[in-house]
Every structure is written in C-alpha cells, then in structure tokens.
Amino acid sequence: MKIAVAGYGGLGKAVCKAAEKCKDVELYAVFSRRDKKILNYKENVSVYPFYEAEKHAQKVDVLINCMGSAYDLPKTTPFLAGFFNQVDSFDTHAKIQSHFERTDKRAKEGKKLTLICAGWDPGLFSLARLYLGCAIPEGTDYTFWGEGVSRGHTNAIRQIPGVVDAVQYTVPISSVVKSVRAGEMPKLKECEMHKRVCYVVPEVGADTRRIAEEIKHMPEYFSDYDTTVNFIDYESFLVDHSRERHGGSVIRCDGKSLGEFSLKLSSNTAFTADVLLSFARAVYKMSKSGETGCITPFDVKPRDLFALGDDERMKRL
C-alpha cells in the first residue's frame, strides 16, 4: 500500500515514523504547507507543496490527512476526497454529520473512498460504544477522556493569535467516575463529567486576557466546560508539558451489568498514527472492491484492519 501524508505537524511525523515499521506500507510523499527545506532536513522523505497534492493522486493508494480538526480538516478532507482515497482523524463530535455529508458528495464525484474519524475517540471508542450497546441494550453510555493531553483541543489553542505553544489536559471529575463505576447511573452532560486545564506560552506583549477569553468561549471545545487557563514561560512548558500521555474509558451500565473499554496511552499522537494506518489499510482493500463515498469506522470489517493473513489472524486472535 503506497501512502502519502498531508500535514507535517506532530501527527504527520508520527504517521511517517509508524509507516516505517509496517512491511505492507510504502511512504510515497508528504504534502505540506511548511518550508520544504526544513522538512527534508528532518526526514528523508519526498516533500511537495500541499497545493500540488492532486498532481500526485494517481501515484497514491491512500492519503492520510493529518491536519487539525478545528480549522483544516473541514476544508481539506472534502477537497482531497475528490482526488484520493483518504483517511482523517476528524474529532469535533458535534460536526461529524456535516463533515460526513460534504466529504461524501466530493468522494462520490471523484469515485474515491474517504474514511473519517479514524482515531481513538471518535474511532475505537465509537466501536466500543457500539459493541457494549449490543451487549447491554438497555444501558447508559458514559465516556471519560483523560487525564491527558487532547491533541485536537491543544491544536485549537495553538491557532489563536498570540500563542507560541500550548497544551490542554482533559481531566475526568473523580467523584463522577466513581459513581459510574459503582453502577449508580447518574444523569450527566459531558461538560459535567470533565474539566479542562490549559497551559499557554504567550508571545511577548500578547494580550493574555484576550487569549484566555478566546479559549474559554471556543464553541465545541471549551465553552461548555469548567476551563482553567494558565500562562507560563517556554522553559517551564518544555520541562513540565512535553509529554503526550492520554487515555480514557467507555462505560455502559444498566444497573445490573457493567461493561468497560479503556486505554492508557504514553503518547496520544503515536497511538493515533497507528490507528490511522490500520484504517488506511482497510480503505485500500475496500477501494479495490469499488467502494466510493464517505465512510466511518462502523463501516469497516475488522479483518480489513490487519496485515495478517486469514489463517494467522484466526489463530492469534
């Protein structure tokens, strides 16, 4: 499977690194808006300007779109869907339906296949909610994220003018987690289950009050949550906030039975990169069968995620 990567931030770099470990994957190129000389210096990989991506479409089996959900993917995923088979990790839950519809239209016009929301939530946690819903049909779902670094929320803060760097930690409220695991089935909104803690390095002379207000009022990301914004210097940021640990749990309960699927990740970005590659493998197989349009992880046969053959997969799993 010959892949290309669109976007060369943290996730794009992680996908390139993960691809090196896959015997069935060949990295064709990176498409980026960044300076080509800098990228070639960091990685031994062909780099082309993002605006030239469509010129290479016939040489790529699957494009992995590693741009950010807040500002880039709503535009770039539908655009690229007309030229490439594609996978993205769009994670703005409230906008998934509209993202799907725009992408589906473009992909069908171009007779290509795009899978959206291939991360761990949405993505693996979506599948966990589906499977647990089948096993406990009358239950209630609870999804907890963290404590850890949210890639999408962090990227959204970094786009704010005056921000040098930032990180956002999603923190489950411990008393709520304890209540759910005890089978008490509290009625809660997501914003009542978590709080958000941000650490921001501002530019010299930046209006920190404006930045804090812009963060706290950002729709779909922070506006409904108890959000704390801390401003720190860059040296402290590098020492205390350079790790990307994350994780969480999906819990479903009906008062008698309880099911739980959980993840504890040392690197959110590296984990997401491996998930994207697995779903890219599935898109490659499905596209060869003639499927087009937009799909989600719900539409993928589990066996298509693996490079293993049928006999080895059956034996091991």
Task: Report on this structure.
The protein has 317 residues and is an alpha/beta fold. It is 36% helix and 24% strand. It contains eleven helices and 14 strands. The chain has helices at residues 10-19, 36-42, 73-81, 96-110, 124-135, 151-158, 174-181, 208-216, 234-240, 268-288, 310-316, and strands spanning 2-6, 26-32, 47-49, 62-65, 86-88, 113-115, 140-145, 148-149, 163-172, 194-202, 226-231, 246-253, 258-265, 293-295. A seven-stranded parallel sheet has the order 3-2-1-4-5-6-14, with helices on both faces. Strands 8-9-10-11 form a four-stranded mixed sheet. A three-stranded antiparallel sheet has the order 7-12-13, sandwiched between helices. α8 (208-216) links the parallel β10 and β11. The longest helix has 21 residues, at 268-288. It is globular. The mean pLDDT is 93.
What proportion strand?
A: 15-25%
Mean pLDDT: 93
| Amount of helix | 25-40%
What is the helix tally? 11
Order of helices and strands: EHEHEEHEHEHEEHEHEHEHEEHEH
User: Main β-sheet: number of strands, strand sense, barrel status?
Assistant: 7 strands, parallel
Distance N terminus to C terminus? 23 Å
Provide a short characterization of the protein structure:
This protein has 317 residues and is of the alpha/beta class.
Q: Which SSEs are present, and which pair or pack?
A:
Layout: E1 2-6, H1 10-19, E2 26-32, H2 36-42, E3 47-49, E4 62-65, H3 73-81, E5 86-88, H4 96-110, E6 113-115, H5 124-135, E7 140-145, E8 148-149, H6 151-158, E9 163-172, H7 174-181, E10 194-202, H8 208-216, E11 226-231, H9 234-240, E12 246-253, E13 258-265, H10 268-288, E14 293-295, H11 310-316
Parallel strand pairs: 1-2, 1-4, 2-3, 4-5, 5-6, 6-14, 10-11
Antiparallel strand pairs: 7-12, 8-9, 9-10, 12-13
